[in-house]
Amino acid sequence: MPARPIASATVSFGLVSVPVSLYSSAESTAKVSFNWLHKECGSRLKQQYVCKQDGDLVEREDMIKGYEFAKNKYVTFTPDELKALEEQATASIEITEFVPADQVERSYLSKLYYLGPDKGGDRAYKLLSKAMQETGLAALAKYSARGKQYLVLVRPMDEGLAMEQLHYAHELRSFSDVPLGEGEVKADELKLAIQLIKQAASKEFRPENYDDDVRNRMLEQIQRKVDGEEITAAPTEEPQTQIIDLMEALKASLAEGGTSAEKKSAKSAAKRKKSKKKPKRKAS
User: Does residue 261 carry a pLDDT above 70?
Assistant: First the structure.
């Protein structure tokens, strides 16, 4: 089934314009969500807003937005004023410079979109993609949409283009703020740790070997509940004796064969054979 575009835009570099369509790169179906219901009658509950000062319910038409510029002090805005604050959506991806893709740290990456040629843009799209592949460069650009301006990276992917939404520099926290402790790395422990890593290493990344076990278990249990069965928590395992000595822990891990990629692959393949359909609703 062909992918459906979620938006249209134009990639601009120099005097060249490339009309493109944006496609989501992933499905947002992994989360299992629950609704709040009235315990007595089973009806679904709706969200309401209550005034913090007098406790009264506030209807939508009596609500306004405000910005807290100081503790408990707000400046309010009308809908028109809020609209004036937003970035004008130009649907233009304006390339500002080209950089080596490996120079953009992974910590800056936020979201990934696929780009496909829009009507009339096939030749220009393929030209830009091919030129970027030949040069090994990616494009930093500004993209205005949904009232905001985004920093994005347009890069070659397969025979086409992808667009990665980036964090701005001021949005990222510095890793230097993370306390790392003062643990000492001993040579013999390092040698065993390297052995353990190599033992569990694979030559390539195979995401198909991994499933969301928690989601699958939840859906199975929910289906049992829909079918009228009772569900209970699985018995918890007795906590294992913790190995305090790091050398002993490394030796024990090596003896057990580490975390074999082959074992994971076989386990995941077996799980994928099972049905992953959503729980069926009871007939009313």
Answer: no
pLDDT band at 51 (very low <50, low <70, confident <90, very high): very high
Domain boundaries, the chain: 7-26+87-171, 187-232+245-272
Strand runs labelled E in the chain:
7-13, 16-24, 49-50, 57-58, 65-70, 73-77, 92-100, 109-117, 137-145, 148-157, 160-166
Residue 222: band (very low, low, confident or very high) from pLDDT cuts 50, 70, 90: confident
| Rounded distance between C-alpha atoms, residue 166 and residue 99, angstroms | 14
Determine how many CB atoms are found less than 10 A away from the CB of residue 199: 15
More confident residue, 23 or 265: 23
Closest CA to 219 of 20, 34, 2, 56: 34
CB 150 within 8 A of CB 49: no
Distance CA 169, CA 21 (A): 27
Which range among 31-40, 112-121, 234-243, 270-279 has the greatest average pLDDT? 112-121
CA–CA gap between residue 143 and residue 149 (Å, rounded): 6
DSSP result, 228-264: T----PPPPPPPPPP---HHHHHHHHHHTT-S-HHHH
Fold of 7-26+87-171: Ku70; Chain: A; Domain 2 (2.40.290)
Task: Please state, in angstroms and rounded to a whole number, the distance separating the CA atoms of residues 187 and 166.
Answer: 39
Q: Once rounded to an integer, what is the mean pLDDT over residues 188-196?
A: 90
**In this structure, are residues 26 and 106 in contact, taking their beta carbons and an 8 Å threshold?**
no
